[in-house]
């Protein structure tokens, strides 16, 4: 039996739309063993039907196709603690898990790079997939497929306010305009680059500005009542940076040591049906044979 572990991720980091992301220490676990026909057993967050028509099996088959082989029937069991459709990269984790399970059964023939390629092609943007596969902070491009790790100062944590209601990534992408003003593109370019420079030099005081964004958050915040105020409250409470988690609806705040003020600032946004997660930065995909 092959087992893989894949982290949740926060994509964009505010300004790095479709380009920057970070892994969180919250891991999906998936295992696969040969079977007579495809089977799927889901447990964990939310509801995903136990049918082989799912993101994990789809990525499993795509990975075999990339290796030039027909996928064998397989039974996949999954425990997923990543909230679904909340902006924490559950779909990317599912796809990475499927491709990684295939890679294990192919004796590592695709490797991490192949898993990254398969999952990015299916997901459509690499900013969740790169940190899910390689861990930590990552800069990623889909064309040409590229990933570069960013520096990771010690002791950082994310406080993530996860509301009770989902927002599908497809819906949050549909809210974006086809064109943006040149001034907004300029605004984001400098700030996305600032993430890399500030992390590299440990200049954490620059991250609040680095996370500010005009390319997607202003449009998505319209779909997320209370989120703009929550981001302001987190900044006022001393967060190093605050931004929409992926495509939303969760919001994330980066902190170093004492995060209790930031947790309090985000509590209202999570609300009684949601929750607050405090997570350290995660490593990438791992696996073991059991
Ligand atoms: N482990 C999984 N197995 C099968 N489908 C999944 C799994 N995780 C997520 N999904 C599907 O992906 C959807 C969420 O993807 P998406 O809208 O991109 O949000 P996010 O990736 O931010 O959680 C879920 O509603 C579900 O349909
Ligand atoms: N860059 C993408 C990231 C989506 O992340 P998710 O975790 O919400 O799926 C986007 O902003 O659409």
Brief rundown of the structure:
The protein contains ten helices and eleven strands. With 290 residues, it is of the alpha+beta class. Strands 1, 2, 3, 4, 5, 6 and 11 form a seven-stranded mixed β-sheet that branches. A four-stranded antiparallel β-sheet has the order 8-9-7-10.
Low-confidence runs:
none
Q: What's the Cα radius of gyration?
A: 18 Å
Order of helices and strands: EEEHEHHHEEEHHHHHEEHEE
- Strands, count: 11
Distance between the termini: 5 Å
Give an account of the 3D structure.
With 290 residues, this protein is of the alpha+beta class. It has two domains: 2-150 and 282-289, 2-Layer Sandwich (Ribosomal Protein S5, domain 2); 157-280, 2-Layer Sandwich (Alpha-Beta Plaits), CATH 3.30.70.890. It is built from ten helices and eleven strands. Helix 1 packs across helix 2 (90-105). The radius of gyration is 18 Å and the shape is globular. The mean pLDDT is 97. Residues 11-12, 17-18, 87-89, 91, 125, 127-128, 169, 173, 216, 246-247 line the site of ligand LJ64HWYM.
Question: What is the secondary structure topology, with strand pairs?
Answer:
Layout: E1 2-11, E2 20-34, E3 39-44, H1 55-66, E4 74-80, H2 90-105, H3 111-123, H4 129-134, E5 137-141, E6 146-149, E7 157-162, H5 169-174, H6 182-201, H7 207-210, H8 217-220, H9 227-236, E8 241-244, E9 251-255, H10 260-270, E10 275-280, E11 286-289
Parallel strand pairs: 3-4
Antiparallel strand pairs: 1-2, 1-11, 2-4, 2-5, 5-6, 7-9, 7-10, 8-9
Helix pairs in contact: 1-2, 1-3, 2-3, 9-10
This protein binds adenosine-5'-diphosphate and the ligand N[C@@H](CCOP(=O)(O)O)C(=O)O.
């Amino acid at each position: 039996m092959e087992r893989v572990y894949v982290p949740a991720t926060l994509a964009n980091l505010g300004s790095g739309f479709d380009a920057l992301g970070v892994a969180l220490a919250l891991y999906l676990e998936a295992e696969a063993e040969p079977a007579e026909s495809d089977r799927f057993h889901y447990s964990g967050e939310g509801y995903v039907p136990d049918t082989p028509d799912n993101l994990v099996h789809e990525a499993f088959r795509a990975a075999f196709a990339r290796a030039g082989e027909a996928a064998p029937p397989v039974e996949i069991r999954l425990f997923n603690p990543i909230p679904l459709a909340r902006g924490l990269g559950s779909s990317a984790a599912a796809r990475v898990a499927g491709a990684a399970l295939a890679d294990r059964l192919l004796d590592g023939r695709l490797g991490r790079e192949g898993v990254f390629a398969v999952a990015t092609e299916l997901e459509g943007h690499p900013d969740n997939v790169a940190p899910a596969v390689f861990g930590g902070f990552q800069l990623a491009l889909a064309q040409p497929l590229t990933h570069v790790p960013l520096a990771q100062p010690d002791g950082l944590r994310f406080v993530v306010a996860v509301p009770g209601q989902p927002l599908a990534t497809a819906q949050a992408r549909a809210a974006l305009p086809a064109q943006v003003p040149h001034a907004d593109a300029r605004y984001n370019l400098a700030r996305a680059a600032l993430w890399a420079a500030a992390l590299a030099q440990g200049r954490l005081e620059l991250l609040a500005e680095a996370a500010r964004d005009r390319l997607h958050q202003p449009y998505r915040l319209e779909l997320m009542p209370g989120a703009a105020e929550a981001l302001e409250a987190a900044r006022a409470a001393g967060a190093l940076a605050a931004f929409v988690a992926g495509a939303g609806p969760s919001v994330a705040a980066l902190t170093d040591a004492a995060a209790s003020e930031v947790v309090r600032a985000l509590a209202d946004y999570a609300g009684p049906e949601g929750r607050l997660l405090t997570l350290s930065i995660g490593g990438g995909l791992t696996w073991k044979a059991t």
